[in-house]
TrEMBL record:
Enzyme Commission code: 2.6.1.44, 2.6.1.45, 2.6.1.51
Name of the protein described by the UniProt record: Alanine-glyoxylate transaminase/serine-glyoxylate transaminase/serine-pyruvate transaminase
Residue span(s) of domain Aminotransferase class V: 32-336
Domain of life: Bacteria
Organism for this UniProt entry: Pseudoteredinibacter isoporae
Any one Gene Ontology molecular-function term assigned to this protein's record: L-serine-glyoxylate transaminase activity
UniProt cofactor(s): pyridoxal 5'-phosphate
Entry's family note: Belongs to the class-V pyridoxal-phosphate-dependent aminotransferase family.
Length: 371
């Protein structure tokens, strides 16, 4: 017979979810109230303000979507593309491929700009793609590729999109709260993230933000958004600016308490200090790994501090090491994906998982398992 589930106490140093602080878990356990309760509406407004702080934006349409990062991704594509449109999609890892799927499911054409896994998106190739396709309506790229641990030059990519009268769609699932992300300064038009990475909240919520230019494009659509749930014009009726909130869907009320608390923690620490903390512990981890004779696979110039791609030494079996770390140390690290299956581990230092204890645990556990 099934009984109450008590999860093991793991340390989450993979590609996400990351460790959730007891403070956020306590918020999650508070009494559920109605999703139109005035107290909840007040909380929604605070969440919107805190998300503006995290995204560094004044965008009015800055809200959490009640579904995981993939839904945030889909929300950006279905609201900004219509059948017959063209979108330039950059792929240098797993998630550019998912973007292509989204473009095609909107009935639009994806012009692919491909770069090797483990390298950033080439700004020159994107410029060349716009020269060949000046009618492209959207440029989509991943800021922080979780599948490889690579950061692309989001500021430059948003600028190319703006210079070509296209809207930029940026995947910031792994970047939000971990590295600099300046939505307004960079002129990004539609940005989505996830709750479970550097925000260290429970999985299942996708913060999104849309620029006034993106909102105008949504309002001027001639073609109905094919997704009812993700149609931003409908979602705005619930999350919108005025005090009249209409039922759209039942928000995951307790998960929103958790998101609110995780954003408060980020605000209390301050964005700059959070970014410095990620870089500091990343550098310590890299030094330790290199001292053990392990190699980092991504060039230092574009390494993400929050996701570290480490080469698996010759003769070492990937799965055996990860499963020993899990069973002996309750430590989760990630497997390689795509071009890096069996060749690399992905060690996450995201949000609450990015502290000295975790770096030391990871280094000593890996050293013992590899010995
Ligand atoms: N984009 C990136 C860069 C991701 O890392 C992920 C998840 O790992 C996603 C999108 C999809 O997010 P979710 O798994 O929350 O749907």
């Amino acid at each position: 017979m099934a009984t109450t589930f008590y999860p093991p106490q793991r340390t989450l140093m993979g590609p996400g979810p990351s460790d959730v602080s007891p403070r956020v878990l306590a918020a999650l356990g508070r009494p559920t109230i109605g999703h139109l309760d005035p107290e909840f509406v007040t909380l929604m407004d605070e969440i919107k303000g805190l998300l503006q702080m995290a995204f560094q934006t004044d965008n009015q349409l800055t809200i959490p979507i009640s579904a995981p990062g993939s839904a945030g991704m889909e929300a950006c594509f279905v609201n900004l593309l219509a059948p017959g449109d063209k979108a330039i999609v950059c792929q240098n890892g797993v998630f550019g491929g998912r973007m292509k799927e989204n473009v095609e499911r909107c009935g639009a054409t994806a012009i692919m700009v491909e770069d090797d896994w483990g390298t950033p998106v080439s700004v020159d190739k994107v410029s060349a793609a716009f020269a060949a396709h000046p009618d492209a309506k959207v440029l989509a790229f991943v800021h922080a590729e979780t599948s490889t641990g690579v950061e692309s030059d989001a500021a430059a990519l948003c600028k190319i999109a703006a210079d070509n009268n296209a809207l930029s769609i940026m995947d910031a699932v792994t970047s939000l709260g971990g590295i600099e992300l300046k939505v307004d300064e960079w002129g990004a038009d539609a940005v989505y993230s996830g709750s479970q990475k550097c925000l260290s909240c429970v999985p299942g919520i996708s913060p999104v933000t849309f620029s006034p230019k993106a909102v105008e494009a949504i309002q001027n659509r001639q073609h109905k958004v094919q997704s009812w749930f993700l149609d931003m014009q409908l979602v705005m009726g619930y999350w919108g600016g005025d005090s009249k909130r209409a039922y759209h869907h039942t928000a995951p009320v307790n998960a929103m308490y958790a998101l609110h608390e995780s954003l408060l923690m980020l605000e209390e620490e301050g964005l700059d200090l959070a970014f410095e903390r990620h870089m500091f512990h990343h550098e310590a981890l890299v030094k330790g790994l290199e001292a053990m004779g392990l190699n980092m696979l991504v060039d230092q110039s574009c390494r993400l501090p929050q996701l570290n791609l480490v080469q698996i030494p010759e003769g070492i079996e990937d799965a055996a090491v990860r499963s020993a770390l899990l069973s002996q140390y309750d430590l989760e690290i990630g497997a390689g994906l795509g071009a890096f299956v069996g060749k690399a581990w992905r060690i996450g230092l995201m949000g609450q998982a990015c502290y000295q204890e975790n770096v030391l645990l990871c280094l000593s556990a890996l050293d013992n398992v590899l010995a």
